[in-house]
Write a structure and sequence with these properties.
OB fold (Dihydrolipoamide Acetyltransferase, E2P); 27% helix; Elongation Factor Tu (Ef-tu), domain 3; 426 residues; rod-shaped; single chain; disordered N terminus; conserved putative lor/sdh protein from methanococcus maripaludis s2 fold
Length: 426
């Protein structure tokens, strides 16, 4: 056997011949050129994408065609067209009213009663004076009574003398002149007696007056005297206010009860004097009561010619003018629960256009004395000068020609340049 050492050696594989030229002259495969070219283009594209400016995200709104209103919004309150404040016609004692605020009253219904005032209390000094006055009047009455008795005696004597003179005259013992003198004396005695009786009655009344002044104080009416003075309602309506809810003394002219008809209301809206000049008489008004209740319709009836000063919440003095608004007839459900002094939010329509070219007020930008807007067209910003004819808080009316309905405008535009790329903010 042959030993391993005697075995023939195995033949090694022969490598393929290669290009022995240096690296720069080495032949490149075409696929490698394509791969490196694509990688370079992608890198350049990524670099351009990273450095290129981004489109600016903006809020946009469209130009519309529709109705436009110029309005003025202020707050005010409702008030009665006819409010009656009933006062005491004279001084007296008011009886406790039986009515409450909100009660329904009819025309000529008795609202309250006035009774006489109680006599004032008498202090010791006045009490002594009144007692002396009573004594004086008693003495005067006694003197008058004695005078009456004296004149009654004189009259009886004059009558006897007249009878005797008449008998003697019939027998022709005295002259006719003596008879006339006796008859005149009798007539004079009768008249003197009547005068004395009148003086006695006067003394009696004076004594009664002095005794009444000395009597005890009392507010209770005497038997047979009237119960008091009734106070009637001038209209049918509701009790609005009770100035006095309990019994007590009142003076002449003192307010007692306020009444009015809650179904006859009007609104009073105070506006700035500079705005009042632009409000036409008969302008439509929408009165909102807050909550979910439907707004009430009204018309401007009168703009008061006198202004007043009111301090605003910011501490600024403002000249305000009252605008009186008539409420249009409403359904019972809408008018239910309304009353005097209720707060309302008023929207007064100054002018109205049925078809107007409208742009959002937020899209307007000042350009010196004029206005301009930025339109978004094919993703680019375009500036357009516009002529504003009228505006409110939401829209502005522009003259036709520059823009058309449906154009997209930039809202609250920042500092833009012509042709700048834009995109709609979601």
């Amino acid at each position: 056997m042959n030993s391993p050492a005697d075995a023939a050696p195995a033949t090694a594989p022969v490598p393929a011949p290669t290009d022995q030229r240096p690296g720069p002259w080495r032949r490149w495969h075409p696929g490698r050129w394509l791969a490196w070219s694509a990688a370079g283009l992608l890198g350049l594209a990524g670099l351009w994408w990273a450095l290129a400016p981004r489109p600016l995200a903006v809020e946009v709104a469209a130009v519309t065609q529709g109705p436009f209103e110029q309005s003025l919004e202020e707050d005010g309150q409702l008030r009665l067209k006819a409010r009656y404040s009933i006062a005491a016609p004279m001084a007296g004692q008011l009886q406790r009213p039986s009515l409450q605020v909100g009660d329904r009253v009819e025309k000529n219904q008795v609202l309250a009663w006035l009774t006489p005032m109680a006599s004032p209390l008498i202090d010791p000094r006045n009490h002594s004076v009144l007692r002396q006055r009573v004594g004086r009047d008693e003495a005067t009455q006694q003197a008058a009574s004695a005078r009456v008795a004296q004149l009654q005696t004189a009259l009886a004597q004059a009558r006897l003398q007249a009878q005797r003179s008449a008998q003697l005259a019939q027998q022709y013992f005295i002259a006719e002149a003596a008879l006339d003198q006796a008859l005149n004396a009798e007539s004079a005695a009768e008249q003197a007696l009547e005068a004395a009786r009148a003086e006695w009655r006067a003394a009696q009344f004076s004594l009664a007056e002095s005794q009444a002044a000395l009597g005890p104080s009392s507010a209770t009416a005497r038997p047979g005297a009237p119960a008091g003075l009734p106070i009637h309602s001038p209209i049918g309506g509701h009790v609005l206010k009770l100035h006095l809810s309990s019994a007590g003394p009142v003076t002449a002219g003192q307010a007692l009860i306020d009444v009015g008809d809650n179904t006859s209301l009007e609104a009073v809206i105070d506006v700035l004097s500079s705005d009042a000049r632009h409000i036409p008489t008969g302008a439509a008004v929408a009165l909102s009561l807050g909550g979910r209740q439907a707004a009430l319709a009204g018309r401007v009836r009168r703009i008061e010619p006198t202004a007043f000063t009111r301090v605003s919440a910011l501490g600024i003095e403002e000249q305000r003018v009252n605008v009186v608004v008539d409420l249009l007839p409403a359904s019972p459900a809408d008018a239910q629960g309304l009353g005097d002094g209720f707060r309302v939010d008023a929207r007064i329509v100054l002018s109205r256009l049925e078809q107007a070219l409208r742009v959002p007020s937020a899209a307007l930008v000042r350009d010196g004395p004029d206005w301009r807007v930025w339109r978004m067209h094919q993703g680019r910003a375009q500036a357009h000068a516009v002529q504003v004819q009228d505006r409110n808080a939401e829209f502005a009316v522009i003259a036709p020609g520059t823009l058309q309905a449906g154009d997209t405008l930039v809202l609250y535009p920042p500092a833009l340049r012509e042709g700048q790329r834009l995109q709609r903010r979601p």
